[in-house]
Amino acid sequence: MFYTAFLIGLFGSFHCIGMCGPIAMALPVRQGNIYSLLINRLLYNLGRTITYSAIGIVFGLIGEGFSLAGSQRFVSIGAGIMILLMVLLPPRITQKFYLLKPAYDFTNFLKKKFGPLFRSKSQFATFFIGILNGFLPCGLVYIALAGAIASGSPVNGMMYMFMFGLGTIPMLFAVSVAGNFIGINLRRKVNKVIIPIFMVVLGTLFILRGMNLGIPYISPNLQDGKGMTKMEMKH
């Protein structure tokens, strides 16, 4: 399922332009050649990806607990249902999950940490901005974390979120280097049409994965209590 994580990041990065794009375009950089700029932007995206991977370890560990309890497939089904609800429910309901007071407080805390880093023009500061950026509350990250839990282990959770981070890099890297070159109409079309369709497909895949239908790569048999994939062998 790692390919789904990459696709979440890749398609969802159109959404990221609106959320993280301003930060990416405002990144500090020393006056220098194009190579210095490219390294600067790569460090920022590397920082985000490292944070996602670290969070993936934690949520993968949670998923491992469910797996050892023989509940991994139910977690996969639950994650799929959650993704589908985020698409089908009206925004006035889903936004309540993002605007909780703890999320506000944590976001304000991060904003205070961003200030000194943006005043610095060192490569380290840009890298650390990426690290902090990865902790910002984001609905797209929540979707990826559902996949990290369903992965069933800390290593798989880390790899799932790493692939998600890699998927977000092409678009945010381009925006941070070339500016906001993608038209608002295209972004709206992607956010309103393409991303919801992809989320429905993804949610359906998670549900099928948990149903143990014996379909290779889509709905393999999951061994209860071990969270491992069991393939039927024909002799």
| Backbone structural class | mainly alpha
Shape: globular
Count of folded domains: 1
Main pleated-sheet profile: 2 strands, antiparallel
> Could you give the order of strands across the largest sheet?
1-2
pLDDT < 50 stretches: 224-235
Mean pLDDT: 75
How would you explain this protein's 3D organization?
The protein is mainly alpha-helical and 235 residues long. Helices cover 76% and strands 2% of the residues. Strand 1 (221-222) and strand 2 form a beta hairpin. Helix 1 packs antiparallel against helix 10 (184-210). The longest helix has 35 residues, at 34-68. The protein is globular and about 55 Å long. Residues 224-235 have low confidence and may be disordered.
Chart the SSEs and their pairings.
Blueprint: H1 2-19, H2 21-25, H3 34-68, H4 72-88, H5 91-98, H6 101-119, H7 123-133, H8 139-151, H9 154-178, H10 184-210, E1 221-222, E2 229-230
Antiparallel strand pairs: 1-2
Helix pairs in contact: 1-8, 1-9, 1-10, 3-7, 3-8, 3-9, 4-8, 4-10, 6-7, 8-9
